[in-house]
Amino acid sequence: WETDEVRPILGQITNALSHLSSVGIVHADLKPGNIMVVNRHESPIKVKLIDFGLACPASAVIPGDFVGTVGYCAPEVMLGLPYNEASDMWSLGLVAVELATGLPLYPSENDYDYLKFIIETQGQPPDHVLDSGVYTENYFIGDKYKQQRWTFKTEEQYKGSVPGTGHESLETRYIILTRLDDLEQLMMFRRGPEAGQRLFVSLIKEMLALDAHQRITPSQVLRHPFFSPGLSKRFPCINIERPY
């Protein structure tokens, strides 16, 4: 998708998340398959957020209960931390990258590989995040005497420490980025230079903050320079398929 085509889609789904956040609901399974095109022939294209089968009040979230789809889940969900609407923003960031590049950023159905892919591009979550995870010790080795208290396990360490894990790591990425800033070059390579690409990458970096408390909110997304002034007013909250 061209950057100008991604922008209204991202705006509409962000508005949907803003509406959900205002009533304290987490969608919990935001992915391309749960975004429905309403009318492909309209310009800009109209989309809706669908499938609320895993949606729940943020106040009812139980840390350690896994929900969502590996490949789009926020780190706090994978690690068993308390999570809220910010987890949907992470998922939307990955969806936006996929729309803009035509390629999923962290394509994996395996939790270890998915976390490994994230860490290889973005680094690992900060220690204060890892300290609170129910499942942190499944994937990381702790050492309170080191400056960085947690170290991501090798595949052999992971297999040896998690019962019943016969995991063989698979390289499923189409592209491997060493940092999120490299998205701009990838977009230029796949589509040529377009206005707004650098601003898009700037926004994605805020959507994919590893610490959920540092992640951008829906209202902040629509005020980001990637969106022209007043753009959010063009997206009334009709972009949610109500579950009832």
From TrEMBL:
<keyword id="KW-0418">Kinase</keyword>
<dbReference type="GO" id="GO:0005737">
    <property type="term" value="C:cytoplasm"/>
</dbReference>
<dbReference type="GO" id="GO:0005524">
    <property type="term" value="F:ATP binding"/>
</dbReference>
<dbReference type="InterPro" id="IPR011009">
    <property type="entry name" value="Kinase-like_dom_sf"/>
</dbReference>
<dbReference type="Pfam" id="PF00069">
    <property type="entry name" value="Pkinase"/>
</dbReference>
<protein>
    <recommendedName>
        <fullName>Protein kinase domain-containing protein</fullName>
    </recommendedName>
</protein>
<dbReference type="InterPro" id="IPR008271">
    <property type="entry name" value="Ser/Thr_kinase_AS"/>
</dbReference>
<keyword id="KW-0547">Nucleotide-binding</keyword>
<dbReference type="GO" id="GO:0005634">
    <property type="term" value="C:nucleus"/>
</dbReference>
<dbReference type="GO" id="GO:0004713">
    <property type="term" value="F:protein tyrosine kinase activity"/>
</dbReference>
<feature type="domain" description="Protein kinase">
    <location>
        <begin position="1"/>
        <end position="227"/>
    </location>
</feature>
<dbReference type="InterPro" id="IPR000719">
    <property type="entry name" value="Prot_kinase_dom"/>
</dbReference>
<keyword id="KW-0067">ATP-binding</keyword>
<dbReference type="InterPro" id="IPR050494">
    <property type="entry name" value="Ser_Thr_dual-spec_kinase"/>
</dbReference>
<keyword id="KW-0723">Serine/threonine-protein kinase</keyword>
<keyword id="KW-0808">Transferase</keyword>
<dbReference type="GO" id="GO:0004674">
    <property type="term" value="F:protein serine/threonine kinase activity"/>
</dbReference>
